[in-house]
């Protein structure tokens, strides 16, 4: 299994970013995928999840209405569109395969004025 997150960066409050996670080493279309984040001094938080065909999506209350998870099974990629970013969204973001204990390196999102 390999997961490579990208798309992080620094943005001002109210801005947007789109994260990508390129997956390989398993049959991507068969697995539910999730995005997690880890902020300094906090526990890892489940941000969003998406079913294998992409028809069911779930979000943490903290990001509902601002973030959108999606996937392209033809490209073995899962995305996280983040809008109306807040300072409390600052964290390292990771994608995760449901049921497989593997974490990539993550991508850092910094929201600051």
Summary?
The chain has no helices and 10 strands. With 113 residues, it is mainly β. Strand 7 and strand 8 form a beta hairpin.
Q: Count the E strands.
A: 10
Strand order of the largest sheet: 2-10-9-4-5-6
Instruction: Assess the beta-strand content as a share of residues.
Output: over 45%
Tally of alpha and pi helices? 0
Q: Round the Cα radius of gyration to an integer and report it.
A: 13 Å
Q: Which features does this protein show?
A:
10 strands; six-stranded mixed β-sheet; globular
Account of the protein in words:
With 113 residues, this protein is mainly β. It has strands at 2-6, 9-11, 17-24, 33-38, 45-50, 57-59, 67-72, 77-82, 91-97, 107-111. Strand 4 (33-38) and strand 5 (45-50) form a beta hairpin. It is globular. The chain starts with a strand and ends with a strand. The relative contact order is 0.33. The mean pLDDT is 97.
Q: How are the SSEs ordered, and which strands pair?
A:
Blueprint: E1 2-6, E2 9-11, E3 17-24, E4 33-38, E5 45-50, E6 57-59, E7 67-72, E8 77-82, E9 91-97, E10 107-111
Parallel strand pairs: 2-10
Antiparallel strand pairs: 1-3, 3-8, 4-5, 4-9, 5-6, 7-8, 9-10
């Amino acid at each position: 299994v390999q997961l490579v997150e990208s798309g992080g960066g620094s943005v001002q409050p109210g801005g947007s970013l789109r994260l990508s996670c390129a997956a390989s080493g398993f049959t991507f279309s068969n697995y539910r995928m999730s995005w997690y984040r880890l902020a300094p001094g906090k526990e890892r938080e489940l941000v969003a999840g998406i079913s294998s065909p992409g028809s069911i999506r779930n979000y943490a209350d903290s990001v509902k209405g601002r973030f959108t998870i999606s996937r392209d099974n033809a490209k073995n990629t899962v995305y996280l569109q983040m809008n109306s970013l807040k300072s409390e969204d600052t964290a390292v973001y990771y994608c995760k395969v449901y049921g497989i204990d593997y974490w990539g390196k993550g991508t850092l999102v910094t929201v600051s004025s």
